[in-house]
Amino acid sequence: MDKEYAFARAPCSWAPRRALKLVAGFSLALGLNLTLDQRLARFAPVHLGVDLSALPAGDHEAVVNLAKVGKLLDRLYLQQAWSGNKALHKRLRHHGDPKARRLFELFKGPWDRIEHNEPFLPNVPARPDGANFYPSGLTQAEFESWVATLSEADRARAQGFYDVVRRDKKGKLYLNTYAKEYADLLVPAAKLLKQAAATVTDASLRRFLSSRADAFRSNNYLPSELDWLRISNQSALEVTVGPYEVYTDALFAYKASYEMYIHARDFASSELLHKFTETLSDVERQLPVPNEYKNTNLRATPIVVVNQLYAAGDVAVPMTAAYNLPNDERAVREGGSKLVIIKNVQEAKYAHNLEPIAKLVLAEDQLKHLSFDAFFTHILLHEVAHSNGPAHVVNLPDVTIRSRLQELYSTTEEAKADIVGLFAAAYLLRKGVITGITTESFYTTYLASSFRSIRFGLNEAHGRGQAAQLNYLIDQDGFAYDAATGRFRVNFDRIEAAVSLLAHEILVLQGDGDKARVKAFLDKYAVNRDYTSAALARLAQVPIDVQPIYDVLNTKS
Q1: What is the pTM of this model?
Q2: pLDDT score for 305
Q3: Can you give 45-96 as a three-state secondary structure string?
Q4: From the Swiss-Prot or TrEMBL record, what is one GO molecular function term (predicted)?
Q5: Cis peptide leading into 326, omega within 30 of 0?
Q6: How far, CA to CA in Å, does 283 sit from each of 53, 382, 386, 427?
Q7: What is the DSSP annotation of 147-160?
Q8: What are the residues whose beta carbons fall under 8 Å from the beta carbon of 535, sequence distance 6 or more?
Q9: Contact present, 130 and 249 (Cβ < 8 Å)
Q10: pLDDT of 166-218, one tens digit each?
Q11: Among 123, 303, 347, 395, which one has the highest count of C-beta atoms within 10 angstroms of its own C-beta?
């Protein structure tokens, strides 16, 4: 899933602080001297929603109950992210500065995900790598020694998505299911999901909401994951709810966080994009790697284009523009995956963030190539590309790449999806699958978008991955920096070859599953060099992202 941001779309505490000279256009040296107003100004407020007047009354009622589920999952995610969040949020609600409360709710905690997770409130500790999934002070070495003593079934749970690790009074580690750990919130959430299922008009959505409610109680998520994949493309509502992303677990990237999206389906755009699902295997065959690094078990990814009505839980700013789920490898093997593109969020990001950035960092003669269609289509291809390349270590079919790369996995996976998506764009343009967009538009818009992502900070997967790509492509002469103007340009005669080289590099690093080599690659490239820091400094007044104002919360059912 593509969560465009920090620690849980998550801050990676392993990113070297020395690499961060400037992030998001604000000097890290300012630290807590940044005012609340300055922090809030980085996110342009946007109203999100669509006309729901044509929805049947039962769907309206379902949306109301689903929003109540989201409120519960907001509380649950705060508990997952840090043990102190609940008490701090209560103090902010009753006695805090409204601006501090707004920031807390945007970041889902007291750490500024853009400023390398520095606290923006006093008397707050450093953000714990293990969030609240593991006992405080647990080290990787202690965890791995304990896992080695477990049965095969418990070992899978310990390294899986849906169990927390706790320590008893004698200091012994043990597992507790999400269903038990969060029962006070999951039980009422399950009841509301059942109520929504009872009124929603589409039978397939009804089945998913009901089975997901059952999963909240049983801790068995696989059946409802498959039901989510089977939601009809005729359903007017698209709902995603449950534990999905592992970014918040910066210790191992094992544990999933709860989140929720309520969307209205954009039928016209979905139909236009269905053709891309047919290209997955074709692109895989063209990847610039030996055959053993290619995925021979690809499934066409269904694509759904939606407009966001509401989001909750693990949905901090910067906002998610698209996601490809599920993340559970068992569900992917059995049912494939589904890509959800959030069109109204993408339009907001392009207008409020990307266009202003491009005007300040791109060579002026290449600004004419900037294109929302290129931006939109690359996001689509990025999400499809998560399915491309090896899912398991080469010649070790039972060993996932995620388990080998651990905390480095998210960065390499986002970088892979970016660069393979760009590789696919050039190929599909030549094939005539993509029309109405030029290669110049793809590469130029991608270059501008690199700075948009890097501004999220090198403490998160997308920003760190984009920094690595930018530096690699400059070293390969695909992009160029003009020190005289402080602007960047695409070398159109070199960029396609440079993209191919980088795609090969990342796919092989992933397929080999060699964590030390991946770390060396990221240490070399995933940094902000002087030219990037200078460019970021010029963007200080440009919003980094958008912050949502959900219209659905202000309308009656």
Answers
A1: 0.79
A2: 93
A3: EEEECCCCCCCCHHHHHHHHHHHHHHHHHHHHHHHHHCCCHHHHHHHHHHHC
A4: dipeptidyl-peptidase activity
A5: yes
A6: 41, 12, 12, 8
A7: HTTS-HHHHHHHTS
A8: 360, 361, 451, 486, 488
A9: yes
A10: 999 999 999 999 999 999 999 999 999 999 999 999 999 999 999 999 999 99
A11: 303
Q: Position of tokens 């409120």? A: 71
CB atoms within 10 A of CB 53: 7
Query: What is the per-residue pLDDT across 358-385, written as a single tens digit (0 to 9) for each?
Result: 999 999 999 999 999 999 889 888 888 8
Integer angstrom CA distances of residue 7 from 15, 176, 205, 330, 343: 11, 23, 30, 25, 24
* H-helix or E-strand spanning residue 466: helix 461-475
Structure tokens at 380: 């689509």
- Cα-only R_g, the chain: 22
Q: What are the angstrom distances between the C-alpha of 434 and each of 43, 470, 484, 503?
A: 32, 24, 36, 20
d(CA 476, CA 550) in angstroms, rounded, equals: 44
CA distance 159 to 144: 10
Annotate 108-149 with DSSP letters as a single string.
TSSEETTTTTEESSTT-PPPPTTTTTS-TT--HHHHHHHHTT
Which candidate, 318, 332, 374, places its Cα nearest to that of 112? 318
CA-to-CA dists, residue 301 to 27, 104, 122, 278, 400, angstroms: 41, 35, 46, 8, 20
- Residue 101's alpha-carbon distances to 95, 110, 318, 525, 548, in angstroms, are 10, 9, 17, 36, 15
Tell me the Ramachandran region of residue 542: left when phi exceeds 0, alpha when psi lies from -120 to 50, beta otherwise. Answer: beta
Q: Which is nearest to 403 in space by CA: 233, 225, 246, 229?
A: 246
Take residue 435 and report the two structure tokens written for it.
């029309």
Per-residue DSSP letter, 261: E
d(CA 258, CA 221): 12
As given in the structure block, the two tokens for residue 516 are 């030390």
CA 12 from chain centre, in angstroms, equals: 13
> What is d(CA 158, CA 171) in angstroms, rounded to the nearest whole number?
17
